[in-house]
Amino acid sequence: MEKLTYTSAKKELEAIVASIESGELDVDALTDKVKRASELITFCKDKLTKTDKELQKLLEELD
User: Are 33 and 16 in contact (CB under 8 A)?
Assistant: First the structure.
């Protein structure tokens, strides 16, 4: 399995949103997609938070 990256998570989220908006999902698949979207959102949020903290630390070291 490919290691999840921010870019791949974002692309997968975009695909999920597109499939939901198109109305092509049945109720069972919709539940699974929403659950996966929630996992991806959490991953992206954590990644952005970690990156922000790392950047702040690097900028502080430059001062």
Answer: yes
Phi-psi region of 23 (alpha: psi -120 to 50; beta: other; left: phi over 0): left
Q: What integer pLDDT is reported at residue 13 of this predicted model?
A: 97
Please, what are the domains in the chain?
6-62 (1.10.287)
Give 32-47 pLDDT, tens digit per residue.
Answer: 999 999 999 999 999 9
Question: What percentage of the chain reaches a pLDDT higher than 90?
Answer: 83
Tell me the pTM.
0.83
Q: How far is CA 32 from the centre of its chain?
A: 15
Name the phi and psi angles at 5, rounded to 5: -120, 165
CA distances to 3, 26, 44, 57, 59 from 9, rounded to whole Å, are 10, 23, 7, 25, 27
